[in-house]
Design brief:
The protein has 527 residues and is α/β, with parallel strands linked by helices. The protein has 15 helices and 21 strands. The strands form four sheets. It has a nine-stranded mixed beta sheet with strand order 3-2-4-5-12-11-10-7-8, with helices on both faces. Strands 1-17-16-13-14-15 form a six-stranded parallel beta sheet, sandwiched between helices. Strands 18, 19, 20 and 21 form a four-stranded mixed beta sheet that branches. Bound molecules: xanthosine-5'-monophosphate. The site of xanthosine-5'-monophosphate has 14 residues, from loops. It is an enzyme of class 6 (ligase).
Length: 527
Amino acid sequence: MTKTAPAPPNVPSAAAAQRVLVLDFGSQYAQLIARRVREQNVYCEIVRHDITAERLKELDPIGIILSGGPNSVYEPDAPQCDAKLFELGIPVLGICYGMQLVCQALGGKVDNTPSREYGRAECEVTDAGDLFANVAAQTQVWMSHGDQVAGIAEDFLPMARTSTCPYAAIKHRQLPIYGLQFHPEVTHTPEGATVLGNFLNSVCGANGTWKLGDFAEETIARIRQQVGDDRVICGLSGGVDSAVVAAILAEAIGEQLSCILVDNGLLRLDEERAVVEEFSDHFKTDLHVVKAEDRFLDVLDGVTDPQEKRRRIGHTFIECFASEAQKIEGAKYLAQGTLYPDVIESGAAPDGPADTIKLHHNVGGLPEELGFDLIEPLRDLFKDEVRRLGLQLGLPEEIVWRHPFPGPGLAVRCLGEVTKGRLDTLRAADAIVVGEIKAAGLYRATSQSFAVLLPIQSVGVMGDSRTYEDTIAVRSVNTDDFMTADWSHLPYELLARISTRIINEVQGVNRVVYDISSKPPATIEWE
Ligand code: XMP
């Protein structure tokens, strides 16, 4: 059975003394709150909303943040917190729904008559101390709520208001308990970082000493101690997460690391060569490349259903990986690039929310039967932190800023049948899309850009002849978290260049279209 190795929690010792906990009431912003706290060099974790006061006491945070959430506190199944947490003496900041819970628990009045407010609002600060130190008297805030607090208990004081919200911010007279109706964590609240910083520094007494650099050093030391003389296997995909895991392990255990890259024939143009080159430039460890293109094409033969494609690719990947791994003598551990959002979204975190939205199952996820102990050095990090760590560990920008690529690879961008010929068409078009976006200096400004080969042909004219050929869709999105995304507003000239080049240079394509759908309701990938 694979089990997570009994390592101490991935919390650096400095942070172990000081951490902030975010109670997740189902807000789309809970992760963003945690990131904003970490950006102030304070370690922060997300926990279930119904964590008990006793458990909180054990975890001993310097502050507790109650996140927003989609519910009304009056709904019968509305998520609640253990009201005893307000008696612990630990500073509490309730945001939006979190503030309404504070009021409900401590005697205020929440109004659920229709008062929906969504968007920017001008906020007048009436109490310039505390949370609003160094914040302008008139400041812009971002509101996103149905209910709002309509009356506060004797023990509370108002701190700020908007034209429609009399209690945009409140504080308890004696206890370190605060509430904000607006969202300080989003960039649309320009002084939100100052407000959060005031809560962390002045109210919670944070020393702001948590650093990614310490994280790397301590993680490396811990892995060294944990692994001893054993061998560790790490799967490489060409993506940033597995590259950073490999970099940490190479630093920690050097020659005891073996990496496996499965070339499934579904990679982008020249990707296998690039990974091998980058890898050999940066690490002097044992690299195994499994050439499995034919095997993958065989199992995909005739398959057009997207879920079936994923299933077959997943199985074949595991088989290829496992048979290579078994050849590596003395391997005891398997390193994986699991990130913090994967952990909390799968509900696997201790005290993590149980049933939030499930992310894509990663095709790289390996089954328990392989019999290795898991090492997951990035379990406590967000994607942007992984990128920063990669740069600190000396990985080149090209790897660190590479756009994400799905585990099932080009198969889910090759709509309809997956054949070598169709994949080659797609690879050539994709290289033009990415190359032109890079040449226009827009690669970093977009989050994910690629080509999709559609399963339809259409009529065209080339020279004097009629053509009946394939269509390429260009997809480029901007997103922070890949859960929601907007299509990139690329310049027309750039789109024109991409279109002309694809039609001129990629044989068999006579039409290029640009995908202008946002997520939701569309997804980023087409399958
Ligand atoms: P969607 O298409 O759901 O994609 O909007 C969101 C992000 O997830 C990536 N993606 C995957 N990644 N295995 C992965 O490792 C998968 O099966 C998978 N499907 C989608 C997608 O590229 C985007 O970044």
